[in-house]
Amino acid sequence: MNLNFKGKTVLITGGSKGIGLSIAESFLSEGAKVIITSRDTGNLDDAVASLTKKGFAKDHIKTAALDLSQSSACNSLYDQFQNVDVLINNAGAIPGGNIFEIDEDKWRNSWELKVFGYINLTRLYLKKMQEKKSGVICNIIGMAGVSPRYEYICGAAANSALIAFTQGIGGTSVRSGVRVFGINPSPTKSDRMETMMKKTAIDKLGDASRWMELTTALPFGRMADPSEIANLAVFACSDLCGYLSGTVINVDGGQLFATPQK
Ligand SMILES: NC(=O)c1ccc[n+]([C@@H]2O[C@H](COP(=O)([O-])OP(=O)(O)OC[C@H]3O[C@@H](n4cnc5c(N)ncnc54)[C@H](OP(=O)(O)O)[C@@H]3O)[C@@H](O)[C@H]2O)c1
After folding, report:
1. Which atom of ligand 1 is nearest to the CA of 16?
2. Domains assigned to the chain
3. DSSP state of 142
4. Which of 120, 109, 9, 134 is nearest to 59 (CA)?
5. What pLDDT digit, counting tens, does each position of 133-147 carry?
6. What's the pLDDT score for residue 190?
7. Rounded to whole angstroms, how far apart are CA atoms 23 and 4?
8. What are the φ/ψ torsions at residue 164 (nearest 5 degrees)?
9. Which residues are near ligand 1 (CB < 6 Å)?
10. CA 92 to chain centre
11. Distances, alpha carbon 110 to alpha carbons 67, 82, 84, 94, in Å
12. CA end-to-end span of the chain, whole Å?
């Protein structure tokens, strides 16, 4: 299957680790050039080293170290790299916790990145893509937006806002040739998820090191692998999915509709 990404440029925020790094690898495998961002040059250097070790050409990978919770950083990212064919909004770091554990400062700070970062970059790149009459924006959101939980309330509310944002923008962006859609991962192996699982293991089992026990009740008895999100993202961004916009795909192994286990 030719996904037609040769010569295309893909910008992936939060591309130094986890789901974002896996998405970068999948696009590189399809012949695209990638730009990956994170706050930390060390993390970006490690990501480039791991990708080149897998055989990908170094000149197909550019990096930008920026804190995208700052709107000025979103502007400078855009100034640096205006011509991208695909934008993957992925950088997010909302902590787990209930309403009493997430105070107002924590809540606002985490939304600066995951909510306003996505909105700011979409505003910038959508305009440019509309001028070119082509482009794709894929928002990596999260299942908590459709199945909100007390223990991840800040992330649930952010994701729910981003789902509405994606649907509202993607319903009309197609009139100027641009597709905007999202993907909702459920728990997926990454540094961030391990940290969150350890917190839950302390709350539920009294021992952070027992966090893996929490994954056995998940569909297939495991978390999703980042590559399972990445491969979907690349396929959905490709011309083969040219009619996909204004929707958010749930990737939860069917958990949303699973009959409760006794
Ligand atoms: N993993 C899951 O189970 C899961 C489930 C549902 C949704 N998601 C969503 O998927 C996305 C990726 O999650 P992940 O689990 O792969 O996370 P991760 O492994 O922690 O990676 C997060 C990435 O974002 C970057 N980042 C963090 N804060 C940043 C900031 N202020 N400015 C710019 N970059 C920043 C990180 O690099 P630096 O630390 O170097 O900045 C890293 O590259 C997030 O939006 C998350 O909410 C994940």
Report:
1. 43
2. 9-189+229-249 (3.40.50.720), 191-223 (no CATH)
3. -
4. 9
5. 999 999 999 999 999
6. 93
7. 16
8. -60, -40
9. 14, 16-20, 37-40, 43, 67-69, 90-94, 113-114, 140, 142, 185, 187-188, 190-193
10. 7
11. 12, 26, 26, 5
12. 43
Instruction: Look up tokens 């894929």; give the residue.
Output: 138
pLDDT, position 261: 79
The first and second tokens of residue 40, run together, are 């930390």
Closest residue by CA, ligand 1 atom 8: 142
Distance (angstroms) between ligand 1 centre and the Cα of 179 equals 23
55's tokens: 């055989």
What spacing in Å lies between the alpha carbon of 262 and ligand 1's midpoint? 34
Sign of the four-CA dihedral 166, 107, 20, 203: negative
Question: CA–CA separation, 24 vs 32, rounded Å?
Answer: 9
pLDDT in the model for residue 70: 98
Residue 92 Cα to ligand 1 middle (Å) = 4
Give CA–CA dist 219/12, Å, rounded.
Answer: 28
**Average pLDDT, rounded, for the chain:** 97
**Cα separation of 199 and 74, whole Å?**
31
Residues of the chain below pLDDT 50: none
The Cα 110–Cα 248 span in angstroms is 21
